[in-house]
Design a protein that fits this description.
With 171 residues, this protein is of the alpha+beta class. It is 41% helix and 40% strand. About 3% of the residues have low confidence.
């Protein structure tokens, strides 16, 4: 009877173990200039399960390890502040060794190596920034418009802007 119970328990845990064994290891090491101590957090999802990890920052250095199935979108941040994350950015983890360099207060412009997906996202963001700069005067005029009629007219002139952004997204 005891053997039957042990077998049932092992059979019950096998699917979870088998799925975990399909995941691949990642290691994400990095540094934050201007932040010598404290904690940094990494949050991501694996098959509908939210993973939240933390790493102590020592002399500006941090390290995360985990298991993922492929390129995985993650949020890297230092702390929650008024419902928002201070020092935060979206990154893409990959099953490999990753490194990152960040500046406190400017995580969005951090440099990440070892993730092809992150590299592609950075290239996409550069392209979008160029398009935003091209249309910045028009976008600013919408925000400063005094009435809804003028805002609507100005928005209608943004069709090329949205087309350019969409083309970059679909590239």
């Amino acid at each position: 009877m005891r053997i039957a119970i042990v077998i049932l328990i092992l059979v019950g845990f096998y699917p979870a173990y088998a799925q975990l064994s399909l995941a691949h290891k990642f290691e994400f090491r990095g540094n934050v200039t201007g932040l010598d101590s404290g904690y940094i957090y990494l949050t991501y999802n694996i098959r509908d399960q939210k993973i939240s990890d933390s790493s102590r920052i020592t002399h500006g250095q941090f390290n995360f390890t985990g298991r993922i199935y492929g390129p995985t979108k993650a949020l890297l941040y230092t702390k929650k502040q008024y419902g928002r994350h201070a020092n935060s950015t979206i990154i893409f983890l990959e099953p490999s060794e990753l490194t990152g360099s960040f500046i406190a207060g400017d995580f969005d412009n951090g440099l990440i190596r070892g993730s092809e997906t992150q590299k592609q996202l950075s290239e996409l963001n550069v392209g979008k920034l160029q398009v935003r700069r091209k249309y910045s005067k028009l976008i600013d005029s919408i925000y400063s418009a005094k009435n809804d009629t003028l805002r609507t007219l100005l928005r209608s002139r943004l069709t090329p802007y949205f087309s350019a952004i969409r083309a970059l997204d679909l590239k």
